[in-house]
Amino acid sequence: MRLLLAALGLLAIFCSVSCHKGACLERMDHKKSPSEEPDMPECQLYSNASCCYRNFTEQLQSPVSKVDNMFWDKCGNISHRCEKFMKRIECFYQCSPYASRWKNPNYPVGLLHAPLCLSFCDDWFEACKDDLTCAKNWLADFEWNYDGNHCKNSCIPYSKMYANGTDLCQSMWGHSFTVASSECRCLRLDERDKAVMKYLKPDDSSSSSSSSSSSSSSQSSEEKSCKRVMAALQKEKEEEAKEQEKESELLENE
Ligand SMILES: *[C@@H]1O[C@H](CO)[C@@H](O)[C@H](O)[C@H]1NC(C)=O
Ligand SMILES: *[C@@H]1O[C@H](CO)[C@@H](O)[C@H](O)[C@H]1NC(C)=O
Ligand SMILES: *[C@@H]1O[C@H](CO)[C@@H](O)[C@H](O)[C@H]1NC(C)=O
Ligand SMILES: *[C@@H]1O[C@H](CO)[C@@H](O)[C@H](O)[C@H]1NC(C)=O
């Protein structure tokens, strides 16, 4: 009986991943379903299965000024390190085949509570803290007219606008993102996400506010297997790096 339940559980987890494959957010400029998009100048992380077309990513080439119809540099040029994080967010939203897992039910062109790792949010805050912004919520706090978005308030450093990484992640793009309570079952918008996807459940995103989930024991077992798999991946990566080092040493000695 236990085995059967475990098998069903696995099936459910499997389905929650694969049954969501093949969908994109319902933006006019997105594909219906993700497909290969070689030679993207940016967002290469998603080039095997992309919801955006190559031409979208052209505007994300440094220095980024305007993305779609929104100027990012209303308070002056963006620092290189801050821009890198902004791009990771934008690439995820526009190109990731996973993004539609967190499609906003009331606004299907947008995200709702995609669960970011706290470490990602803190790194983002650190990278942007000296950059300037005039809007806390970039979806709501600009004034819009025919020539794009305009500041309603004065430009201040991110470190004044946002209290910390959590505040930044949960404010800048409205309700699009939330900080996950788990440091394993969360997105970092890098290559790790692919492996972590199967541990993310649709209700993970709301877990940061409380641990109200009905099955906390199954949650913690998922947390454990997530940690186990991520540790194994990390080890694999380190060993690969070591191998490469050895190989290049050998080459040098030849
Ligand atoms: C794309 O797929 C190839 C072949 O499966 C793989 O080697 C490569 O790492 C993938 N690239 C990314 C960015 O996932
Ligand atoms: C981008 O490319 C896609 C597919 O090739 C095309 O349908 C779309 O119109 C292009 N968008 C722009 C802004 O050129
Ligand atoms: C902002 O960047 C542009 C393009 O790289 C550059 O021409 C301009 O001088 C920069 N402005 C400031 C104030 O640094
Ligand atoms: C981040 O700032 C928010 C809002 O001020 C605060 O409630 C929260 O405790 C802070 N979190 C951390 C980890 O400092």
From TrEMBL:
Keyword Protein biosynthesis attached: no
UniProt keywords, alphabetically: Disulfide bond, Signal
Disordered: annotated segments: 200-254
Pfam families referenced in this protein's UniProt entry, alphabetically: Folate_rec
InterPro entries per record: Folate_rcpt, Folate_rcpt-like
GO molecular function: riboflavin binding; riboflavin transmembrane transporter activity; signaling receptor activity
Signal peptide limits: 1-19
Gene that encodes it: LOC114658764
Domain of life, source organism: Eukaryota
Membership in a protein family: Belongs to the folate receptor family.
Gene Ontology cellular component terms for the protein in this record: external side of plasma membrane
Basic and acidic residues bias: start-end ranges: 234-254
Protein name: Riboflavin-binding protein-like
Residue ranges annotated for the Folate receptor-like domain, each copy included: 23-187
Extent of Low complexity compositional bias: 205-220
